[in-house]
Structure formats: structure tokens, C-alpha cells
Write a structure and sequence with these properties.
Layout (H helix, E strand, L loop, with lengths): L1 E5 L2 E5 L21 E6 L11 H17 L3 E5 L5 H7 L8 E3 L1 H12 L15 H4 L3 E4 L15 E6 L6 H7 L3 E3 L7 H11 L3 E7 L1 H10 L3 E4 L23
Parallel strand pairs: 2-3, 3-9, 4-6, 4-7, 5-6, 7-8, 9-10
Antiparallel strand pairs: 1-2
């Protein structure tokens, strides 16, 4: 976040943030201000994340079932941030954990920074038996690549908040979707905004208008900024969910 103070008035401009737990990064820090500029990637009431532990338990159960059937489990997750978060939730007792080279480079930087990650290995160091029961963390760009042929029969999944949308799951063409996001959900956005105490909120990027409208209904001065960022890749062809009741 960037805090700007001029003549006693404070503006805070946020980047992407979440308010939930994550062992790989420091928690979101609310900053009191007069004007708060917030992202709104998941700015619809339907976006409500399950507790992180439930998501990790679901990934491990899926991996366990695949390993018992002699199949590798491939989880696509962005190399920087999401991949490391997924790794912290895995149960190494189920089997070996293999990471793509792009993920391994980031993992090393995380470990050097003091973040605890489970032991992982390269596909080149894995035995044929390990390849049939491992969990693999790879970037989305690895989907459909020759690199995946090394694992033979496998089941794949994508870890993203967009997996809540049926259209996004179809577009990704994966066996499973695990709803895990590094952006705040609807309650998280409202929590972060309230914590700033800002009477004026400017919303940008994502589902902007629903959040602007809701904040105005709550008596805040709200508006929108248009950014130079394009649409999120995973939502271009997604089916927009029907808004749920606002809290």
C-alpha cells in the first residue's frame, strides 16, 4: 500500500490484498485514512471463500485418492505466491511433492527469506514409482505441455478464486477446481474498507460497480478509477454469478 499525506489529509492506495491467513506472507495491515483506493477483483457478494484449512484438506484428500489409484496429481498455481501458499498446505506423508522449475526458483527465494516450505524435488530426481503417486505444483502455462507427459496418467486441478465460476472451470478444462485466492472476497473487501475508517472509497479493477453501489448505500462517498489493466484472463469467458444478498 502507498500512504500519501498532504495538508493533513491522507490517501491510501492499496495493491492486491487479502485479509485471510497465509503462512507465506505478512498479514494485510489496515491504515487509517481519509480516502482509500481499493481493488475489487472479487467485488460481488457471491464471492465468499471457505476457510483455508478446508481447501487444503480437500486438496490432500484428492491427492490421496489419486495416489491410491496410481495417478499423479497436478495442481496449477501461479509460480509466485499461489504456488508457495499451496505448498504450505500439503501433507508430505501422502507422497513426494514435485515442483516445476519455474516454481522451484521462487521456492528457493522464499526459503532464503525464512518461509517454511515442505521438501520438494525435481521431476528428474523422481523414481517411476514416485511419479505415479506424487503431487505436482506447476504454473498454468504447463497445462498441455510435453513436460507433463513424464507423469503418465494424471489428474489435474487449478487453484484460483475464479474456480467458483462454472465458466472459468470449463475454460480451464481441468478435473478439479480448488477455490483459493490471494484476493479478498466480498466480506474481506468490506472488512478492509471499514478498518481504514475512510469516508471516501475509490474502487478499481474487477467487479467495480457493485461495490461502488453497495458502499454508497452504506453512506460512504464512493466512486471508481479506471486503470490501464486488462480483464483478468480467467474471467474473460466465465459465467458471471448472480449477486447474492448483501450483508
Amino acid at each position: 500500500q502507498v500512504r500519501i499525506e498532504v495538508d493533513g489529509r491522507v490517501w491510501v492506495v492499496s495493491g492486491d490484498y487479502k485479509t485471510g491467513p497465509d503462512a507465506t506472507c505478512t498479514p494485510f495491515e489496515p491504515v487509517r485514512c481519509d480516502v482509500f483506493v481499493t481493488e475489487s477483483t472479487f467485488g460481488l457478494p457471491v464471492f465468499r471463500w471457505a476457510p483455508q484449512r478446508e481447501v487444503f484438506d480437500a486438496i490432500n484428500a484428492w491427492w490421496q485418492d489419486n495416489a491410491a489409484a496410481g495417478r499423479a496429481s497436478i495442481v496449477y498455481a501461479y509460480s509466485f505466491g499461489k504456488a508457495q501458499r499451496v505448498l504450505t498446505g500439503l501433507d508430505p506423508a501422502i507422497g513426494p511433492i514435485i515442483v516445476h522449475g519455474a516454481v522451484a526458483a521462487m521456492d528457493e527465494a522464499y526459503r532464503q527469506s525464512g518461509v517454511a516450505l515442505p521438501p520438494t524435488k525435481s521431476v528428474l530426481d523422481a523414481s517411476p514409482t514416485e511419479l505415479r503417486r506424487c503431487l505436482v505444483v506447476a504454473p498454468p502455462s504447463a497445462q498441455g505441455s510435453a513436460w507433463l507427459r513424464r507423469f503418465g496418467d494424471y489428474s489435474d486441478a487449478f487453484a484460483s478464486g475464479w474456480m467458483l465460476l462454472r465458466g472459468a472451470r470449463r475454460r480451464r478444462n481441468v478435473d478439479r477446481g480448488f477455490i483459493l485466492s490471494d484476493h479478498a472476497d466480498w466480506p474481506g473487501l468490506l472488512e478492509a474498507i471499514a478498518a481504514t475508517g475512510a469516508p471516501r472509497v475509490i474502487v478499481t479493477h474487477g467487479y467495480v460497480e457493485p461495490l461502488v453501489r453497495y458502499l454508497a448505500e452504506q453512506g460512504l462517498q464512493s466512486g471508481a478509477f479506471k486503470t490501464q489493466y486488462g480483464d483478468d484472463e480467467d474471467v474473460k469467458d466465465a459465467v458471471e454469478p448472480a449477486p447474492a444478498e448483501t450483508p
